[in-house]
Fold this protein.
Amino acid sequence: MTLSSHPKFITLEGGEGAGKSTQIDHLAEKFRSLGIEPVLTREPEGPIRDLLVRGDARWAPKSEALLHFAARAEHLEAVVQPALADGQWVICDRFADSTMAYQGYVQGAGPGFVSELYDLVVGSFAPDLTLILDLPVTTGLSRAQARKDGEDRYERMGQTFHESLREAFKEIAKLNPDRCVLIDADQGIDDVAETIWQAVSSRFDL
Ligand code: TMP
């Protein structure tokens, strides 16, 4: 079995400042060392992103979940599905577990609502592997706040919000043990990268 003939969809999830971008760079390097150039992408993307990550809160939780799924529908159709159909591996920074955690569990849209949206928009398609980066809220938030990119709407939602978010991601990992791996992200970058690579390489025929 070769990598290119069996493309996979890998997602990274977690709270703010968990180190997803850094770890995606490391993971991509590992793939490149095997001669594979993965497609790196993220959600939310496109024009909807700015409506969600900048400025002040202005969406009801269900509207916010719908916006994330609207961005996702576009992203799946324009980027993810074509890449997989073309035989490429796709590594995505956040996917539907973020909607389940942020909007479903914590903001109050409800897990049932998010789950129904998932069925409507995404159907039976799902990531082959989801790596959920877990670390203490204070560590993540101080890292995230050091980034001055103005994309801080969720970061500003407060300590209690982010503590609940951490629990929500742990719950998602517990409910989806076949797909999700909870990664201890409160370690050095290289150690986290190694833990992630173990999870990836033990799961797929590399
Ligand atoms: P990022 O900071 O990882 O780029 O993600 C942008 C923000 O969007 C982040 O604070 C989490 C939030 N988000 C949701 O609330 N729901 C979602 O479905 C997604 C994909 C992201």
